[in-house]
Amino acid sequence: MTALDLSSPVAVVGTGTMGQGIAQVALVAGHPVRLYDAAPGRAQAAADAIGARLDRLVEKDRLTGADRDAARARLLPAESLGDLADCALVVEAVLERLDVKQELFRELEGVVGEDCLLATNTSSLSVTAIGGALANPVRFVGLHFFNPAPLLPLVEVVSGFATDVTYATRAYETARAWGKTPVACADTPGFIVNRIARPFYAEAFAVYEAQGADPATIDAVLRECGGFKMGAFELTDLIGQDVNESVTHSVWQSFFQDVRFTPSLAQRRLVESGRLGRKSGHGWYDYAEDAERAEPHTAERQQPPAYVVAEGDLGPASELLALIREAGIPVREEDEDHGTRLVLPSGGQLALADGQTSVEFRDVVYFDLALDYRRATRIALSASQDTSPQTLAEATGLFQALGKDVSVIGDVPGMIVARTVARIVDLAHDAVAKGVATEEDIDTAMRLGVNYPLGPFEWSRRLGRNWAYALLDDLHLRDPSGRYAPSLALYRHAYASDKREGNTS
Ligand SMILES: NC(=O)c1ccc[n+]([C@@H]2O[C@H](COP(=O)([O-])OP(=O)(O)OC[C@H]3O[C@@H](n4cnc5c(N)ncnc54)[C@H](O)[C@@H]3O)[C@@H](O)[C@H]2O)c1
């Protein structure tokens, strides 16, 4: 057990949103806590705010009155950095500026003891760069909490280039002793969550920019079909478009403008126009009281087809066959070496989104990937100008007969959920191959940090080892910018699985 002893004082420097939350966590865990802020009076105000939050915990029976009083007695605002001399851990949560953080740690190094663990809560700066200001950076780590820190369990424990494993382990174990779920990661842009989550926003914005669908429809498909708690447009309105865009921009710049992380022009314009989301009353959506609520496009009711013919294995969508039969529509299954499609009475076909466009085929309608076809309440379909109206009507009627709302979007290869999940899976494999974190920690981080219904590796296992690779490979062919180029790690993953199954062709 290498966690800090509970009798060791912990300091939090910078007592804004994050500093207060982190201080509350350390305090409730049992540490004496010192608060320091450069703005006069702010540390005292933070102590008062934390005290008020403890009162609310008592009201909700989540803390006893005696524990609250003891915690309050352990919480002390500090007049100067010098008051932090006996602390065993200092967590910094000041302004997100490299020079400000470096200057602070330089000063702190002259104040605290040699063994004091120094931690930054930076979300976008390099831990290594901040620690570079120190004479002794081995005890310097990133401790990346998520907002609100008292409620969200995830903490990314980031090792910089010079961080010694003893200190990283101490930080990790301390976060765990505080009731958090720590994950270990290397110091690369965005750490785990802010790196692997980028496509969730980027692909939704790309579909919108390509005029594939409007925000309300894309959000509804991500939620009701993809199983995400919120869509990308409503979530970024909540986070703040400026905040979300600045993380995207920072990750893209820090990866030397890697095209896989390219920011969205549409989001840039939104920020430039001052539409920052809920906090400004208008973002992708209008939050004025009298504003009309944006509704997703939902297709009119259509007749279900009299029967369907299933050719080949539908892969991640194979559950659909049982659902179609349960809806009373006969299914005839035919073995097919190449096809993985449902053939409709019109002669047209229905296929799971695979990175190709409908226009490449005579009469096909694509349907999007669902987290769970039984529980999904909406499904997106895409058709091209060459798709016959009858095929689209039969496809629509089929999913409506299964109890789903149907949103018909433009001819977008990889559609909405499928391309988003494939890219998340790819970035996750790439991150593991580059030593950023383990598969388990990445799954944990994405479930707890951004509430994904499944971790990328859980998703990958469910979809089949080569599904994401095949989809991205197809998308890359159609958009050779490199944005969709599957990583070498994903290629290896897909190829290794083929070999294991005896198919090396
Ligand atoms: N807000 C979030 O959702 C979030 C989430 C994770 C990480 N972070 C990171 O946490 C840090 C703090 O963010 P925040 O949202 O709490 O900011 P904030 O603006 O709410 O608080 C920053 C505080 O730092 C103080 N400060 C500034 N310079 C200082 C200095 N040199 N010495 C001491 N105090 C100083 C300010 O007076 C202010 O009280 C940033 O690095 C940010 O990237 C923020």
Automatic annotation (TrEMBL):
Taxonomic superkingdom: Bacteria
Q: Name one GO molecular function term.
A: oxidoreductase activity, acting on the CH-OH group of donors, NAD or NADP as acceptor
Record-annotated 3-hydroxyacyl-CoA dehydrogenase NAD binding domain positions: 10-187
Quick one: which pathway? Answer: Lipid metabolism; butanoate metabolism
Q: Which residues belong to any copy of the 3-hydroxybutyryl-CoA dehydrogenase reduced Rossmann-fold domain?
A: 354-413
Q: Which PROSITE patterns does the annotation name?
A: 3HCDH (PS00067)
Q: Which residues form the 3-hydroxyacyl-CoA dehydrogenase C-terminal domain?
A: 190-287, 414-492
Sorted alphabetically, the keyword list is: Oxidoreductase
Signal peptide boundaries:
none
**UniProt entry tagged with the keyword Coiled coil:** no
Q: GO annotations under biological process?
A: fatty acid metabolic process
Output the NCBIfam families linked to this UniProt entry: PRK08268.1
Q: Which family does it belong to?
A: Belongs to the 3-hydroxyacyl-CoA dehydrogenase family.
Task: Specify the protein name.
Answer: 3-hydroxyacyl-CoA dehydrogenase
Q: Which organism is this protein's natural source?
A: Streptomyces regalis
